[in-house]
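Before anything else, study the sequence and fold tokens given here and see whether the fold suits the sequence. Record follows:
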Amino acid sequence: MAAKKKETKGLAVSKRLIIPSLTVFVTSFCIMVLELVAARLIARSLGSSLYTWTSVIGVVLAGITLGNYTGGRIADRFPAAKALGWLFAICSVTCVAIIVSNNVVGSCRWLWKLGWPMRVFTHVCLVFLLPSALLGTISPVVAKMALDRGLPTGKTVGDIYAWAAAGSIAGTFTAGYYLIAQIGTIAIIWAIAGVLLLLAILYCLRLRVLYVWGVVFGCLLIMGAAPWHWARAAGAGLRLRKPPSETIIYEDETSYCYVAVEQLSSAPDRRAFMQDKLKHSEMIMNDVLDLQYFYTHVFAAITHGLSTDKNKLSVLALGGGGYVYPRYVEKVWPGSRIDVVEIDPGVTEAAIQAFGLDRDSSIKTFTMDARNYVDTLLERESKSGLKTRYDFIYGDALNDYSVPFQLTTREFNDKIANLLTDDGVYMVELIDSLHSGLFLGAMVNTMEKTFPYVYVITRGDLADASRNTFVAVAAKRELDVAVLCARYKKKSHSLWHLGESDMQRLKEKAAGLVLTDDYAPVESLLSPVVRADAANFLSSEYFKEAKQLFEQGKFDDCVRKYRRIIEISPITSVRMYNEIGMVFSKQHKWSDAVEAFENALAYIARQKLKLNTANLRYNLAMALRMADRTDQAKEQFKMAVEDFRKELQANPQSAQTHALLAKCLAALGSFDEAGLHFLVALNLNPLNVGTHLELVRNLEVQGKLEKAIEHLRAAIVFMQGRGKKEEAAKLHKQLQVLQSKQSQKD
């Protein structure tokens, strides 16, 4: 009888604990879902790195701690049910505020002035600390509510903690394995806000303000999530969503990242492949051979140079991205074995849906981590003796915001070496700058522990930029990289390989660091590049303002803005001094313009930058000529001609370069040669009215009025045939001037 009575009492206690237990379960569920969502949401503007996860976990835990402390005091002062109603309502409001605050904070200029770890921490703190703290107040109030019912203290507290832990576990797995991939981060936040509002109403059915918030919540939800145009516009105005973009033709939130494909132009159909905040690849649809990114040109240069006697290749790409380069190999070397390891199936699907990858392509995709794939091949070889060897392995999984460290270590390189043929080559694309060079130097140090020959190739025209793309090339045999780069006929950028002294400086900058599975501080090594990115962001914002000031005719303010950019980011000095010179030229302040252009050239010489100075020297020559410094102008025109010729060697299809070279030649009196380059420029871009007028002016100077008139008539017919009425009118106006001169001459 006593046992039965005890059992009945225990059952009654358990029933009275159901509501408190479910409450903390749901609350903890929401907290953990919010924590995972926080990392994904932040990644869109700050990338996904160790700093991101550290900040998210630390801020959420700090918020819960603060909330627990505050919740205990709330529980002692107010009735539990009413307090919970208000707390859940406020939590619902702050969850909606997460969407708004993340959009606002992401565009805060002052935040970009902070150091990288502090910037990430501050962003996370401003967006997620308050919601985490408010959700943290719930558990103490619920525990007090349960204890006020006269339930046993030990069992009550134990059950509350257990259910809270169970909610956290359930939230973690549900969000990580299902919710984020299925409905996306923003939809999850709206769902959490709705659940919290429902809990608030259940605890305080008679609290009218909850129903007011319910109506407001519904309106905000429509503006923030509905597909209608007016809802999109209203939601963007309230910062509940990003402004609608007609250029985004595909987007998806996968288990790993936010993926989008953006159409950059329609003719040609140029598209960019985005993962989180970073543009990973770019291509012109239906022209896979026209590689757009520098590092793919390096891949192609080395591959072509070492495969002259091969019809088929065996290649492995670590990271799919937009599948641009694997498709290039498929096209150039049909029948080749092309394996791609891409951990995110959503990336592959995006490439199929909107980036031209054929679902029946001969490219074979392995959906797994690259390190695991390599381990699987080597394990299979050790067990069955079945060997897999590749002629080329391309590393395309690294960037400056999110670096999978396990693909950078000596242990991984050793495994890669085992998968290469004796003549095989391993190429890795990475981001760094020669100014810091910490990550690049560490990568070189690490690769040299495995491979006897390691080379680095970068863009010569951007070699000294604050952020540049490099390709580390590793092989078991010596390669003549300079010859391989020189042979490459399709290069659109200058391929420059680092010499021995440059390589030695890089390794010294990294202090001999070798990355291992136990120690690979990739985020710290790349922090100078990320800091430079922040300076670039601020510079770009100021640059936009300077352009607006220029258009408004506020030239003095415009110049001050450009000088401010130089202070923020000295690496922009060349471009900013050139812009300052153009502003002074607009005002006919030729002496000031000359000084600005000369400052740009002096910076190049002082920093020993590997830049082509053709445009800069042309601008300086024009300013010198207008300042009546004829001899100096002539010297600058001559140097500009030489630099323009070098540019044309690298990119002979540049209409602008041909036109500028022609102007320089005309200024030097070489009218016939100038005319030839004007014609080449017009063949490349026949719709450029300015080039037509320059050619006519060149003919007029030579006294060839009839030929100039003939050209203008043909150009007018051409423009009219293509519906370019304004352009045709400009040419017709010049035709009338020349006809008048011709009649006077006759």
Notes: Residues 1-14 have pLDDT under 50 and may be disordered. The first strand starts at residue 248 and ends at 253. Residues 12-237 form a domain with the Growth Hormone; Chain: A; fold (CATH 1.20.1250). The chain has 29 helices and twelve strands.
